[in-house]
Amino acid sequence: MVSDLKVAVLGVGMMGSYHATTLSSLVRGATVTVVNDFSAERAAEVAAATGARVVDDPFAAIADPDVDAVVIATPGAAHEAQVLACLDRGIPVLCEKPLTTSIDTAYAVVKAEAALGRSLIQVGFMRRFDAEYAALRELIAKGGLGDPLLVHCTHRNPDVPPHFNSEMMIRDSVVHEVDVIRFLLDEEITSVQVTRGRPTPSAPEGVSDPMMVTFTTEGGRIATDEIFVRTGVAYEVRTEVVGSQGSAFIGLDQNMLVKSTDGRWGGSITPGFVERFGQAYVTELQRWVAAATEGTIDGPGAWDGYAAVAVCEAGVEAVLTGETVAVQMGPRP
Ligand SMILES: NC(=O)c1ccc[n+]([C@@H]2O[C@H](COP(=O)([O-])OP(=O)(O)OC[C@H]3O[C@@H](n4cnc5c(N)ncnc54)[C@H](O)[C@@H]3O)[C@@H](O)[C@H]2O)c1
Q: Domain ranges in the chain?
């Protein structure tokens, strides 16, 4: 009998505690054996809920003999050192986005994994595990839309904390569309342009919310993303792909339950990302556990994490300068 994959979860704040609970309650073949967080209280709480043991130091957690694989859900600035420590130990790691917080460090991680000759790093772009995105990619890959020419994305949040500025809108929200566009079109993004619109009245001083982001790809395709994070409405994430032989749209079914009652027609929209992508997180973890048990990954890898960092870096420069900014990426090792 194969024993469960023993997983350490580093950083058990909002995302890490969600992953730890999902792993211990909904995912087959995994046991959360170790949790770590800078907040001892937080770690103790999640350890009690999952039956794990608290290890105070993140690197001691990675080195723990009772750990076969690691989920990293610490803030982005901590990722580089923690991912490299997993590579040093030769164990699989699911690292939440961003892979790291700079192009140079992300590329260094890509090269360190390549030098090892094994795919051990998976990055937490969970939309690839959402049934609608997967179906859309398959449709495109099979030629169902002819040549895909345009991708239109919409990313609306009901609200965000006041410190969530224009740069964070690119790095924390648009980053998901960056990965979606690369996933759907299977090619790299080469330039980014950002148009800062008239701000909604609830946007803090100096924050451009909404913004329109326009990407071009190496194949000359165009993708757009409306990013609007203080709509006051709900969590609305939609994607349309327009090809030479038709178009396809996702994000209506799961976002909206449309009903006719009481002489009215309409429905409710998912309030947040957990309601919209809850199943995608479960599928992401289930497939990662199955792959990690075999010592590998099954999903977006270090290169995808690096590409997203590079595109977002260009995106932030585009916000600040108003220019169209070329994405700078090194060769794939
Ligand atoms: N894929 C997604 O949909 C998604 C959604 C939200 C957040 N995230 C990502 O998940 C990560 C965590 O985000 P969050 O919203 O859960 O943040 P959070 O602040 O709620 O949690 C982070 C936790 O990490 C702890 N911590 C900080 N530095 C640490 C370190 N060096 N070692 C150990 N613990 C440390 C903090 O005490 C905190 O409890 C970020 O990288 C974020 O971008 C991904």
A: 5-126+279-300, 128-277+310-326
